[in-house]
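hey so u asked for the seq, here:
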Amino acid sequence: MRLSEQQLINAVCEHMAERKQTRPELVNVELQWDEQYGYSAEVTVDGRTQVLVEANLIEAVMRYVYHHFNIRVYREDVSLDIDDEMYVELRV
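ran it, structure tokens below
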């Protein structure tokens, strides 16, 4: 199963909205990849910016897949990759 970059962004928005007790549409996400640090996302909620590392992104994906597809995946089942854009590959 593959999730698009937009689905990854949606997963992070929903995850952070739940954590910060706000609406997902008020969360701004910019996905990033760096050769030294790997995958991350710069997230802005209520004017405050924080950086999520790959483990945080995977946690958001796990929750998203469970809530939207009713499929439970584990960390080792989730991998991030980049083609023309970032995407998530799931082993289900």
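The chain has a mean pLDDT of 97. The helical segments are 5-20, 54-69.
lmk if thats what u needed
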